[in-house]
Specification:
Distance between the termini: 61 Å
Strand content: under 5%
Radius of gyration: 20 Å
Number of strands: 0
Order of helices and strands: HHHHHHHHHHHH
Largest sheet: none
Structural class: mainly alpha
Shape: flat
Helix content: over 70%
Low-confidence stretches: none
Oligomer: single chain
């Protein structure tokens, strides 16, 4: 069953989809990230972040957070910025990313409050936490502002947070749509309201530091959450979902690895030039 689903998919169309998804994802991510680093670290431009973020896909293939750690270290070394301050900027990237994932959940509740009753309390707690956080940012308590790792958060202020959040929305939409639409290639028709609730959870699970690219944990969640939307009996449905998650992971990994190797080579050349100038 699994092999049959792989044979029946439109291979050229699916690989083209994976390629477009990978490039669009990197571009939208770089746009949002360049705003954060340019406002808090140094005037880094979009094409520079595109290079650095693309290169970080290489360690990200082991784990998303490893890639973010490499990016933070690289920006600190090349742009001569304090590591703690760059780490603070990375915290803002994380915060806006998870905020956008919660936004998707909020849209789902607005469309159908009964689709996931467990999501309501989480959204309420997250909303209260976000308001408290922004109040702290606006009040700028001296004991926190003086900390290097937190200083970037206070430097951008409430308006900067909202702008960073708005610029992060396209990146999360690309991630959401790409993951959701990949199931359509294997005739797994997930309703929009269900996707809005479950896809953010799937994306968070994929980023957990358990397995490379979330392989295994991501597939387990997908089998339980999406099998019922495939065609056929239970075994047929599970085979379709398994074929989707494995093929999508392999497809985007191929393009991201090729792009990351090229960009990593260029990034290391820039780092070497920076060291030569310093010496």
């Amino acid at each position: 069953m699994f092999a049959r689903h792989l044979r029946q998919v439109n291979t050229v169309g699916f690989l083209a989809f994976c390629f477009v998804f990978s490039i669009t994802l990197l571009a939208s991510d770089s746009l949002a990230t360049s705003f954060v680093y340019s406002r808090t670290v140094c005037p880094v431009r979009f094409h520079e972040v595109f290079l650095i973020r693309g290169a970080s896909y290489l360690p990200s293939m082991l784990n998303h957070h490893l890639g973010q750690a490499w990016l933070t270290w690289y920006v600190s070394r090349v742009y001569k910025a304090p590591l703690g301050r760059v780490a603070g900027a990375t915290l803002l990237v994380y915060g806006t990313t998870f905020g956008c994932l919660l936004l998707l959940g909020g849209v789902s509740l607005a469309l159908d409050a009964s689709s996931a009753r467990w999501l309501g309390p989480i959204m309420i707690a997250a909303s209260v936490g976000a308001v408290v956080y922004l109040v702290v940012i606006a009040s700028r308590p001296a004991i926190l502002v003086r900390r290097q790792v937190l200083a970037p958060l206070f430097d951008v202020g409430v308006v900067g947070h909202l702008l960073a959040f708005a610029l992060r929305v396209p990146h999360i939409l690309v991630l959401f749509l790409g993951t959701w639409l990949s199931f359509r290639f294997f005739d797994v028709d997930i309703p929009p309201a269900v996707a809005l609730v479950t896809m953010p959870v799937l994306l968070v699970i994929s980023a957990l530091p358990v397995t490379p690219q979330g392989v295994g944990t991501r597939d387990w969640f997908s089998l339980h959450a999406f099998s019922q939307y495939a065609i056929g009996d239970k075994m047929e449905q599970e085979a379709a979902v398994a074929a989707t998650t494995l093929s999508f992971a392999v497809g985007i990994s191929i393009f991201q690895a090729a792009l990351a190797l090229y960009l990593m080579h260029r990034a290391l050349r820039v780092l070497a030039m920076t060291k030569d100038k310093a010496s």
